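Here is the promised in-class demo. Please do not try to memorize the tokens; focus on the logic of going from shape to residues.
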């Protein structure tokens, strides 16, 4: 540990450092005196999704009805993903048609999953774990089935699922975790936000979003444009051109 703390990452004239978020950039500056380039997570917003999602097919496979309101939590079942917030949101929407679908078992522990199920039962929420699959078509199907994408994470290195929601043009409910607050929210994305607590205002905004497709359409169009500007493959090209230039390559 002492060697790692003193020597990693290495600092040399022929090395350029790239980090994924501003928190990491600050930490690298404080620990090693290095000014790093910032490269966020990206997706191919320039071309858009290759596959048109089949939401009806996903709903059928998951045992959902066409009239159900799907709150999609496209994350693994781990505590830092804040699934409790999505369950609480579903309960406070007070509509039996609302269903919560989590898409990735990940490193699922039965104890935590049981706690989530107990909470859902106590609040009268239909909670389901239905793996979406890792291939592009399955992922597109899951997002196409979502009336609202829920990403109430407590902390993230960046937030792939959040970018996926922008990419697949779905409205978003998000917790203002550190990287979202510093790196993503300032770009002007339009999401229903909470600060660690599901508020009456957030519930009301979700209700308006679900009731008014036009309101959702405006938000997802705006978020896609922001993705194109700030989180596209073009950003990768720009960052690495700067890195190569700094190294004299």
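The designed amino acids, position by position:
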């Amino acid at each position: 540990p002492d060697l790692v703390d003193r020597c990693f990452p290495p600092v040399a004239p022929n090395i350029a450092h790239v980090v994924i978020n501003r928190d990491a950039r600050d930490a690298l500056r404080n620990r090693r005196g290095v000014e790093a380039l910032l490269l966020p997570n990206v997706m191919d917003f320039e071309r858009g999704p290759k596959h048109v999602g089949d939401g009806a097919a996903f709903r059928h496979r998951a045992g959902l009805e066409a009239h159900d309101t799907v709150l999609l939590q496209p994350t693994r079942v781990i505590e830092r993903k804040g699934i409790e917030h999505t369950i609480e949101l579903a309960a406070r929407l007070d509509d039996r048609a609302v269903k919560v679908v989590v898409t990735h078992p990940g490193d699922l522990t039965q104890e935590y999953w049981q706690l989530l199920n107990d909470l859902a039962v106590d609040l009268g929420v239909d909670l389901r774990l239905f793996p979406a699959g890792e291939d592009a078509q399955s992922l597109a199907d899951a997002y196409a089935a979502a009336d609202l994408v829920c990403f109430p994470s407590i902390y993230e290195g960046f937030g792939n699922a959040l970018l996926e929601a922008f990419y697949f043009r779905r409205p978003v409910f998000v917790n203002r975790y550190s990287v979202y607050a510093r790196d993503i929210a300032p770009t002007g994305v339009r999401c229903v936000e909470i600060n660690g607590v599901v508020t009456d205002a957030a519930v009301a905004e979700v209700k308006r979003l679900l009731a008014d497709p036009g309101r959702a359409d405006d938000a997802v169009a705006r978020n896609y444009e922001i993705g194109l500007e700030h989180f596209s493959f073009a950003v990768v090209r720009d960052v690495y051109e700067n890195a190569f230039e700094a190294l004299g390559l």
